Amino acid sequence: MEKYIEIIDAVKNFGSVRALQGVSITVKKGEVVLIIGPSGSGKSTLLRSINRLERLDSGRILIDGESVTDPGADIRHIREEVGMVFQSFNLFPHLTVLDNITLAPICVLKKNKDEAIETARRLLAKVGLSDKEKAWPEQLSGGQQQRVAIARALAMNPKVMLFDEPTSALDPEMIKEVLDVMTELAREGMTMLVVSHEMGFARAAAHRIIFMDAGQIVEEAPPDTFFTSPREERTRKFLEHIL
Amino acid sequence: MKGSPFSDRNSKTSDKTTINVTDGTLIPLKDEGSLLSAWNISFFGAIALLVLLPILSPDPYLHILSFVPDGLVATFSVTLISIFFALLIGLFAGLGRISQNRSINRIATVYVEIIRGIPLLVQLFYIYYALGPLLRLEGPSAAIVAMSVCYGAYMAEIFRAGMQAIPRGQMEAALALGMSRSMAMRKIIIPQTIRIILPPIGNEFIALLKDSSLVSILAVSDLLRRGREYASTTFRYFESYTVIALIYLVMTLFFSRLVAMMEEKLRHRGKVH
Ligand SMILES: Nc1ncnc2c1ncn2[C@@H]1O[C@H](COP(=O)(O)OP(=O)(O)OP(=O)(O)O)[C@@H](O)[C@H]1O
Ligand SMILES: [Mg+2]
To answer: ipTM of the assembly?
Structure first.
């Protein structure tokens, strides 16, 4: 299969902190890649460089052949095609659920309102929240907010979805409802990069697991090999810690 | 796993969404029955006195009431014009306070520090008597300049706090959806900021309305000065100042109530989380 996302030798420093020290990853279309690693290992920075919420110091990132890192890149156009889901949901609190989802399609993609609403309703049904379209974000549980955030990202009809610890802020009983939506999305063939330590999701949906430490990729493998026979000592230590 | 959804460094914790009110009358909230009745007693009591006194003893109360409306107009003009300029100054100084640019930041901060450290009365004297001859300012314009510059510093702090109360994740979510920075400001950041700062701005308006009585010293014929003029020609000090006090009380209580209602309305939609 074709290379869909190419990250080539990505380097990013925050002052003296070396967040990414030459990371290269290739993701194929429809592939679900899980990124794990200790706190501060650069997982978020890597994800955030893909839609250029962080700018790399050096290295290149291509999505479907289009350069993200090129200074002249049409970054807004690229962001339309890359959906992002945050740990803290970041729903817009002054907008209803429906308006949260339709805002960008209407303002950015210039869709007409009825069409945007129709898409939003379809997506709300998909994440199991059809009855919440008129609700305000603060009236929803964390799990519901995160599912709305996923619907909001999907409304842009993205080619790729990035998830940065989407369930870390959730109470245990809500984690499953979000992971179910993500698993379904993976099954439908969405290309996904997911930072998460949910091993159930890793086994159910991930094609590949990447272990990062100190701004570098230590090891990558399919879930079964990764969990049963990790090659590196650092990976083994980390797995002991989280499993 | 992190306990709070907002422990992520990408979203700033904001305990300061409600900006504290330090000045003005007590604001009645629905769930505070005793305060509400305190408000009712003061407000309707003051109105009753303002109606009954002129009926029961037209001389001097009716005369006083017919003498002061000019002053009311002056008081409101000074207040409204000053609040307008204070908002403008406050917006820019507030943006300056959060600016990444060092010198802009420094200038805005120094302005706020200086102004907040000098009593308004001293600023009024300074602008009218010390700078007035140089700037050729008449009483009313000196009053407006002084009040705008003074309240601009307080407004700056409200704008700054309001904008800083919006978590960083809001801008990032908007950008990630393909919005431009200016679109994100217009659609996401500013609407949320306005919801947060409207009530404190309302309270500044009330404080300014009260402080505007200070300008009576600068030969501005505001409400207080009109009362003083009446009193000094008729020697009805008690009656004149009673009426003046009641009128101020009715106005501030009325506006406090408006602000409280606005706050209540914004509450369920204005929250950041
Ligand atoms: N904006 C920033 N300014 C300064 N340092 C930063 C910034 N963003 C990240 N860092 C630093 O870069 C390093 C990598 O951070 P990153 O957030 O990518 O780690 P992470 O793997 O996502 O960690 P976590 O599991 O805690 O989310 C950390 O040391 C972090 O402190
Ligand atoms: Mg992270």
So the answer is: 0.95
